[in-house]
Automatic annotation (TrEMBL):
Lineage top rank: taxon: Bacteria
PANTHER family for the chain: CHITIN-BINDING TYPE-4 DOMAIN-CONTAINING PROTEIN, GLCNAC-BINDING PROTEIN A
Protein name according to UniProt: Cellulose-binding protein
Signal peptide: 1-27
Region listing for Disordered, in residue ranges: 172-201
Organism: Planobispora rosea
Cellular component GO terms, alphabetical: extracellular region
InterPro entries to which the protein is assigned, alphabetical: CBM5/12, CBM_sf_5/12, Cellulose/chitin-bd_N, GlcNAc_Chitin_IntDeg, Ig_E-set
GO molecular function, one term: hydrolase activity, hydrolyzing O-glycosyl compounds
Gene name of the record: cpbD_3
Taxonomic lineage from the root: Bacteria, Bacillati, Actinomycetota, Actinomycetes, Streptosporangiales
Keywords, ordered alphabetically: Hydrolase, Signal
UniProt feature, compositional bias: Pro residues: 174-192
Keyword Signal: yes
């Protein structure tokens, strides 16, 4: 009986060791922003991604690959150009941010558009932090482009691969609002007048003739151009229409 218990315990220990040995294979790194293809898959924003949705950090293949899946057959969906990969709008440069779940000693980081390497960062074998950022110039490129980002490991023959789809020249997704310019009408606006008044308190929706005088916010104004007033065209706001007296 004791011998049987001993054999079961040894078997369980062996199984546990196998599981622990296998699990670190899923811990490495990928480009998190702008979102790479594996990041979008992990977020559920692209359908039918296969295994990559569970381990976006595991696209590890031999160095020298030029494919989004790094030559790893079970991640081949990443190189499927028929999928609806979202493209992030960027300007003339972009900062790529990597999330590293295992901080391997690093030789270089490379970025490609097509067969052209557009950036190279040399870490000279150093161990990176848990996150790594690189600012890359996109000068000379516009429109939709696919960037292949590569993390070359220093002490193995392997590298990690991430493809990022960009819309270059797409502009700032949160632009600063442009100040509203002073309105200078060159023709009679379209609103239908509700009344005609040569003078009195300024009102919206009223037809004013040249020379009409009104008061607004305690000040007096003379009409310079015939027009029908509208909200937003209060006398202080449109000096082309009203002259303060």
């Amino acid at each position: 009986m004791r011998k049987t218990i001993m054999l079961v315990a040894v078997a369980l220990m062996t199984f546990g060791a196998t599981v622990l040995t296998a699990s670190p294979a899923s811990a490495h790194g990928y480009v998190s922003s702008p979102p790479s293809r594996q990041a979008f898959c992990a977020q559920g924003k692209v359908p039918n991604c296969g295994d990559i949705i569970y381990e976006p950090q595991s696209v590890e293949g031999p160095k020298g690959q030029r494919s989004c899946h790094g030559g790893v057959a079970r991640f081949a969906q990443l190189s499927d150009e028929s999928k609806p990969w979202p493209a992030t709008s960027v300007g003339a440069s972009v900062t790529f941010n990597w999330v590293l779940t295992a901080r391997h000693a690093t030789s270089t980081w490379e970025y490609y558009i097509g067969n052209t390497r557009i950036a190279l960062f040399n870490d000279n074998g150093r161990q990176p932090g848990a996150t790594v950022s690189h600012n890359v110039s996109l000068a000379g490129y516009s429109g939709r482009q696919k960037v292949l980002a590569i993390w070359n490991i220093a002490d193995t023959a392997m590298a990690f691969y991430s493809c990022v789809d960009l819309q270059i020249g797409g502009g700032n997704p949160n632009p600063t609002p442009t100040p509203t310019p002073t309105v200078t009408p060159t023709r009679t606006p379209t609103p239908t007048p509700t009344s005609t008044a040569p003078s009195g308190t300024w009102r919206a929706g009223t037809a004013y003739a040249v020379g009409a005088q009104v008061t607004y916010a305690g000040a007096s104004y003379r009409c310079l151009q015939a027009h029908t007033s509208a909200t937003g065209w209060e006398p202080p706001n449109v000096p082309a229409l009203w002259q303060r007296l």
